[in-house]
Amino acid sequence: MLTKWGRAFPGLPEQVAEARHFVAGLLREWGRVDEAALIVGELAANAVRHTLSGKAGGWFLVVVGFGADFVRIEVIDQGSDGVPTMRDASSLEEGGRGLMLVAACAKDWGAKALPQGSSVWADLVREEA
């Protein structure tokens, strides 16, 4: 069973940093703070840039679920025309590698469509003591 903490943020670019601080505060004693901050930063930035969450009055929700030996970081947005996917690593475009960073840090990650938005999540395994 997961113990969950969540917080809604306005869909503004400056709120991505606030989402990182929120997650870092929750994981301070658990470990993997840097990886967790990177993950939530990438997922929140994607929500603000690529979904209705970044439009006027938009919002995104960050949920952190603690299991016995892992933590799940989830960002729920207000939806877009597609489901997030990883881009080709050989692309010459400047952006678009955020989900590759998430996948490199996380044990597992995924995305799913919701009735009025989408959810992108990533699992981190607890550091060995």
Notes on the structure:
- This protein has helices at residues 15-27, 33-50, 98-105, and strands spanning 3-10, 59-66, 70-77, 108-114, 117-125.
- It has 129 residues and is an alpha+beta fold.
- A 5-stranded antiparallel sheet has the order 1-2-3-5-4, with helices on one face.
- It is globular and about 40 Å long.
- The mean pLDDT is 88.
Radius of gyration: 14 Å
| Poorly predicted runs of 5 or more residues | none
Oligomer: single chain
**What is the number of helices?**
3
Order of helices and strands: EHHEEHEE
Q: Determine the N-to-C terminus distance.
A: 22 Å
Profile the largest sheet.
5 strands, antiparallel
Number of strands: 5
Strand order in the sheet with the most strands: 1-2-3-5-4
Shape: globular
Question: Summarize this, please?
Answer:
With 129 residues, the protein is α+β, with helices and mostly antiparallel strands. Helices cover 30% and strands 31% of the residues. The radius of gyration is 14 Å and the shape is globular.
Quick tags:
129 residues, 3 helices, five-stranded antiparallel β-sheet, alpha+beta
Topology:
Layout: E1 3-10, H1 15-27, H2 33-50, E2 59-66, E3 70-77, H3 98-105, E4 108-114, E5 117-125
Antiparallel strand pairs: 1-2, 2-3, 3-5, 4-5
Helix pairs in contact: 1-2, 2-3
